Amino acid sequence: MTIKELANQLNMSTTTVSRVLTGQEKKYRISEKTAQRVKDLAKAHQFAPNQIARNLRLQKTNTIGLIIPDISNPFFANLARTIEVALRKRDKMVLLCDTKDETTIEEESITLLLGRKVDGLLVAPVGEKWAHLEKTNNIPMVLIDRYFEHKEIPYITTDNYAGSYDATSFLISQGHHRIACIQGLVHTSANKNRIKGFQKALADHKVDTAQTFILGNDYSVENGYESAKSLLQAAEVPTAIFALNNQIAIGVMKAINEAGLHIPENISLLSFDEQPYFELLSPPLSSIKQPMEEIGIAAVETLFELLENKKVTSSRLKPTLIPRASVKSIVKS
After folding, report:
1. Which CATH number fits the domain that encloses residue 114?
2. Do residues 207 and 174 lie in contact, with contact meaning Cβ atoms separated by under 8 Å?
3. Which end of the chain, N or C, is surrounded by fewer C-beta atoms within 10 Å?
4. DSSP three-state, residue 180
């Protein structure tokens, strides 16, 4: 049954019926009685509006493209869920792309989503190249987690510098001066700011950098595992490891376990990223908790401000240090 046939049976105009079926009865002051008659007949005939035709008419698809680097990473999985819920409340659907932290796939994803005529883009970029992000036909876009300095693309992220500074300062306060930092993708804004925070804390607390290590090259479990294995085979094993994301921390735990060592008796561990299961581990894992839900919600709100042609600003949200039993105090009395 078409809208016209519904309107004929109800002895109403197709415009009135269309407005009711698209939830605009209050906007156009259609009475509750009239609206209910339309809804009842539509339900009886199992009528659904032709959303594709409506989208073509309005030049909108009510879809938002979401591009993330790794759906298997719990941080990005939870971030995607938060964003999907926030967009659904605004009657928007999500088209999700996983780039596997590869710029080529990210470029392909941008092209794919533009071809689907999405209304806007939310992108957690790989973070090494940006030219393809500037060729989006002026589609409103907000970057999440990672961003590009000196570019005008708005972003919502964690204050990675502050979180890393706090984590390193905490390790130092517990007596750790021989600290290893296992990093992620070297050229990403998140990694660079975490390294800067790590190095600034060492300098402020006058820690001899000859005793510290920075190694690693991506945000994977494998990177954490291989990097930790090399550290544990060194002549002087660090007293603490600072893993720059949760996946790296898992790899570190695997390497420590395989070496027959224990956390924190033999070596302390702190992760940049919090996960619900961290407090269930033995021992519970110390972490820097990113405000993941706030980031997702703020990204959606910023995107809608862009869609409404409002001026927006970028934000760096403060993370929280959660100290747990995985860090041992070795302060000399």
Report:
1. 3.40.50.2300
2. no
3. C
4. strand
